[in-house]
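Board notes (copied after class):
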Amino acid sequence: MPEAHLPELPVVLIEEAIRAALIEDHGLAGDVTSQATIAPDAKATAVLDCRETGVISGLPLARAAFAALDPSLKFEMLFADGDTVEPGADVAKISGNARAILGAERVALNYLCHLSGIATHTARFAKHIAHTKARICCTRKTTPGLRAFEKYAVKCGGGANHRFGLDDAILIKDNHIAVAGGIHEAIEAARFFAGHLIKIEVEVDTLDQLREGLKAGPDVVMLDNMSLHQLREGVAIVDGRISIEASGNVDLDTVKAIAETGVDMISTSKITMSTKTLDLGLDIAID
């Protein structure tokens, strides 16, 4: 296996998201609590600490939140995205202007807790299927406006990304097939339309559909809501000619058995839409 490189978020996406989040939080008057209780030049040191075991994701966003309010703040990462942390661990340390630290606290934690929750849940799925060749994949079922970040968190947790939107791959689903007049017709039309770098995947609900679809030469086939027996038979039918994705009824109780059928990818919305946040907090270090 080649060495896996950690993903990187584009700086422009981070800056845009952080700016919008800070504007939402600070409103028209700013952090009136800190203005009322803390001197403008007061200094402080704070730690971002983890309160439960999990996989960290979102530190670049947290760092950007503090830097947006005061570029002179010192943000020291004590862990990296993708690292597993235990309760009581300090994930990062921030020092400098106290008002800036407290003004960025909630935005930083909102991203960090949410994305770390996704990374942590993804890692659970990945661990269940680590003994197989299958990879756990996210879907387009993401929080509006947060897709790039949530898919980044999936990668931090050891998962893989499905398409990012409607424009980066062709996925022919049952409704497309119904309107196009048949699975063969839909794939042929897609093949004629697509550029040579665009992959074509087709979703099938039955093994007969799979056999028909293979004749048209898709790049990937999705076996949707099939039983374990059907999945194993589908893998035998494909016989390594193209990649196979399994989807539907995927959770922590079923993913191991699905992976053991021999499929290449398993996609689920559970890793982005059914996760709880990881419990992290910010505490001022008092000497």
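Comment from the instructor: The radius of gyration is 23 Å. The CA atoms of residues 153 and 273 lie 12 Å apart.
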